[in-house]
Amino acid sequence: MAEVLLVCPPMTREEFFKRGAKFAGAVLPPLGIAYIAAMLEKYGHKVKIYDGIAEGGMIDDAVKLLNGCDIVGLSVNSSFAYRAKETAKAIKEKDKDVLVAGGSAHANTVPLDILKDHQFDLSIIGEAEITFCELAESIDKGKSIKDIKDEKIIKGMAYMDKDDRLFYTESRPLIQNLDDIPMPARHLLPMHLYKMTEARSSRQPCHSMMTARGCPFPCTFCYQDLYKKTYRTHSPKRSVDEMELLKKEYGAREIAIWDEHFTLVKGRVIEICKEIKERGLDIPWSCVSRLDGINEEMLKEMRSAGCEFIAYGVESGSERMLKVIKKLETKDAMRKGFQMTKSAGIKIRGYFMLGLYDETLEDMQQTIDFAKELDPDVVGFTLWVPFPGTTDYKRAVEDGTYSGVPYWEKHNVPEFNFLDNPIYVPKGVTKEQLMKMHRKAYRSFYLRPKYIFKQFAEIRNYDDVKRLYSGFRAIINNEN
Fold first, then answer.
1. Do 244 and 275 form a contact (C-beta atoms < 8 A)?
2. What is the rounded distance in angstroms from the CA atom of residue 284 to the CA atom of residue 383?
3. What is the longest distance spanned by two Cα atoms in the chain?
C-alpha cells in the first residue's frame, strides 16, 4: 500500500505568533489533515503526520520523515504559503520522484501560486479525503506523476501540463454524508502539544472538533466558497461519539466545536444536546454561531447540556458596513441575540474586524462602541486580511485600494496581521490611524472599570485566575 506523509509547514513558535510568543494564542490540531489521514488509513494506506507548527520544528525535520514515502501532502494556507513552498522545495530536493500535493484554502483559490515553480506536482481542489485516496491507489498501481496527470481521471486536481499551462480536472462533488468519513486520526498527532488560550478556555486540555462543514451565508470577506455555500452535518450520534472519545481517550476537560455555524439546524442541535445528557457526558463545551441562528428554547437546551460559551462573529458595529460585507444581520437583531444568550446563562465571545474593505474611521469607532454596548465576556478585534478568492479581495484589487501584490510569497501573515504592519489599509485611512484604532479597541474594552470588576467578581477557582492573568498579559503585550 502507498505510504503518505501529511505536513503542516514547520515553523517555530516565535515565527508563528511573531509578537509575544510566550503569551500567544491557541495551537490547534490540523483537523483537515487528520480527516485525510483517517480516510487513507480506512483504505489500508500507511500514514504519518508532521505538524510543524505544534512541534515548533524546522523544514529539515519534515524532510527527515520522507523515508521512501510515495506521497507528501502539504497544508497551504495564505498565512503560511511561503513556508509551505520552502518545505515543498526541500522535499523535492531530497526526493524528486515523490508526489507532492498541496491542499487547503490557498491551494484551492490560487493554485498557480504553488504550482508555477514546480515544487508542487498537484493542487487539490475541493475536499481532499477521496482525492488523496485515489492518488494513493494510483501510486499502488505503479503509475507515475506523469501518468496521473496525463490520464486526467482523478477529479478535484489542478496541475501544470507539459507546456506550463494550468489545467484542472473535473470538479469533485462534495461529500454529502459526513459520517462516511472516519473520525480524525488524532492518534497520529502530538495531542499533548495543543492548547487553547486561557481567555478561550480555563480548562486544559481543551480539544477541538467539528460537527458540520460549510456555511450558506454570503459574507464577502469569507473563504466559504470552498464549500460552494453548502452546509452538511455529522449525525447527532456521531457528533456526541466524538465528544465522548475526546473526553475518554484524550482527557479533554472541555471541548470546542469549530463549525462555522453550529446552530444553523436547530432541531439537530437539540438532538445533540439530548444525546449528551442521555449519556451523562458531563463536559463543558463551546461553539460558534450567527446571532440569527438562535432562539430561547435551543439556548436553554444547550446550556443544560454543558454549553458554556458561544462565539459570535459580529464583525462590525456600523449598519453601513454590515451591508457592505453582506452580513445579513442588523444591530438590533444582534442586541436581541446577546440578551437571549446572557439570559440563558451562556457566556459570549464577540469577534469584530477593523480595516475592512471600504471602512472609514467612523465605521471603526462605531464597531468599538458597539462592542462595549454588547459587552461580551471575551472580545477579539481582528485586522482584516485580503485573502485571495474572497469577494472583498477582488473588490479591493479592482478599485485599487489593494495592489494585488501577493503578500504571501515572501512573508507569513503573522508578521503583518497585528500592530506592526497591516496588510490592508482602507481608502482614506492611514496605516498609523488603523494601528491606533486597533490598540484603542482592546484598551477601551478591557480596561473599563465595569469590565475589570465583573471579571474579578466571577473568579471561582485557580483556572479563572490563570485565564485573567493570561488575558491581561496579552493586552499589556499588545500595547508594547
1. no
2. 30
3. 68
Distance CA 130, CA 148 (A): 15
Indicate the residue type of 397.
V
- Predicted confidence at residue 132, as pLDDT, reads 98
Q: Give the model confidence (pLDDT) of 210-253 as tens digits.
A: 999 999 999 999 976 566 678 999 999 999 999 999 999 999 99
d(CA 393, CA 388): 6
pLDDT tens for 47-61 read 999 999 999 889 999
| Contact criterion met (CB below 8 Å) for 378 and 386 | no
Per DSSP bridges, beta strands 285-289 and 307-315 are parallel
Q: What does the pLDDT look like over 399-442, one tens digit per residue? A: 998 887 787 776 665 555 455 678 899 999 999 999 999 999 99
Placement of cell 474579578 in the chain: 456
CA distance 339 to 180: 38
Interval 246-255: pLDDT, tens: 999 999 999 9
Residues 6+ away with beta carbon under 8 Å from 268? 233, 236
The string over 108-139, giving b where at least 16 C-beta atoms fall within 10 Å of a residue's C-beta and e elsewhere, is: bbbbebbbeeebbbbbbbbbbbbbbbbbbbbb
CA distance 450 to 454: 6
Residues 132 and 84: their CA atoms lie apart, in Å, by 18
Residues forming a β-bridge with 212: 233
Query: What is the dihedral sign for C-alpha 288, 444, 414, 353?
Result: positive
Joined together, the cell numbers standing for residue 377 give 465576556
Residue 162 has pLDDT above 90, yes or no: no
Which residue ranges form the domains of the chain, and what is each CATH number? 3-168 (3.40.50.280), 195-479 (3.80.30.20)
Residue 349 has what DSSP assignment? Answer: E
Which alpha helices (H) appear in 177-253, and where do they start and end? 236-250
